[in-house]
From TrEMBL:
Lineage: Bacteria, Pseudomonadati, Elusimicrobiota, Endomicrobiia, Endomicrobiales
Name used for this protein in its record: Phenylacetate-coenzyme A ligase
Name of encoding gene: paaK
Species this chain originates from: Endomicrobium proavitum
Gene3D superfamilies: 3.30.300.30, N-terminal domain of ligase-like (3.40.50.12780)
Residue ranges of every copy of the AMP-dependent synthetase/ligase domain listed in the record: 53-280
Similarity-based family: Belongs to the phenylacetyl-CoA ligase family.
UniProt entry keywords in alphabetical sequence: Ligase, Nucleotide-binding, Phosphopantetheine, Phosphoprotein
Pathway as given in its UniProt record: Aromatic compound metabolism; phenylacetate degradation
UniProt GO MF annotations: nucleotide binding; phenylacetate-CoA ligase activity
Amino acid sequence: MFWQKEIETASRKDLQNFQLKNLNETIERAKKSKIYSKQLKDVRTLTDVKQLQNLPFTQKQDLRDGFPYGFLAADLSDVIRMHSSSGTTGNPTVVFHTKKDLDAWSNISARCMFTAGARKTDIFQNTMGYGLFTGGLGFHYGAEKLGMMVIPIGPGNSQRQIWFMKNFQVSAVHILPSYAVRLYHAMKDAGVNPKTDLNLKIFFIGAEPHTEELRREIEGLYGVKAFNSYGLSEVSGPGIAFECQEQNGMHIWEDYVIPEIIDPETLEVLPDGKEGELVLTTISREAMPVIRYRTRDLTKIISEPCPCGRTHRRIARIKGRTDDMMIINGVNIFPVQIEKTIMGIPEASKNYIIEITKKNYMDKLNIKIEINPETFGGTLEGLENLKSKLKIKLKEETGVSPDISFVDRGALPVSEGKVKRVYDLRDK
């Protein structure tokens, strides 16, 4: 039931005492870095975790400005790995790990998978990318820590994915939600029924925003239980928060990070239950601790007790990122609102893109959706009725009336990694 029962079920008081001790140690360690040595020089020992709210935020741009070693708080000779963003918009953000950091990350990842029901007897296929991206390696080492046999296949090549799943009786898979849908259709084309021809039981999904409707769709297609996960490379990688068997919010491991929710406009700390931007402070990392890192991810903290018995609070499904929000003629819209609506229309495929253009000084929202040939009758009248139905539901959900275009299955671009849904074609 528990990977580390004592800490997973610790009383809130014991957990807060643990956090305070480790937070003070983290602050002292962070002062060894070039950046934090200036920002935190006047910070003395905290006597309450709430005093963390008085410390400055760290943002992605700060990490870029500190490239390459500005946030390194350990001797470089003790660093055994780094991960990095792509750096397509400037300096990449780099993150360093000591052996202790990697051991802790592996343990947290193993705890996540155990919490979801994986055991050492499972065969684990990791379809996420390896390399500088943390998604693949984080789960890989966690799975090995748990004792599962790992197939480090990486992304893409659906036929090869299916071959390994079938021949090695894979039971647990780490996969992008969008790729899970595509892989199902590849199985269907290959004459493979995942429910009867394979031994799949557990999917770990994440790394891109997705709706509850898409999770349930994936579970229905494969006959598995799909568990949401959360993490980001700046705070080590995947494994920061994970769903338990209840599938009702992700337990955020409060012996590893201290979470806060802030109003992204006023920067005011919000109470549990209020939606805002997630801010994280690491309390166990050696090489590169981060203090009050603004993740840009929108969620809320669920403080009600979980029936599973774990006392670590939960965060709700990530609604989107503050920088993902689309403003259409003054109306704020998140891509997940559109996905949620599309998922409720069986005749529509789950592959779609959103284009934003401007005409006569007005924003135009255009949504291109692949038709689902298995549920759509194929008449012109049926197509027009489907378009009208979808426009009405999208207007109800978002407050904006979009243009809808249906295209054949396979007509929209696909990606080996995180899927790109939004194309903002307005002049900047």
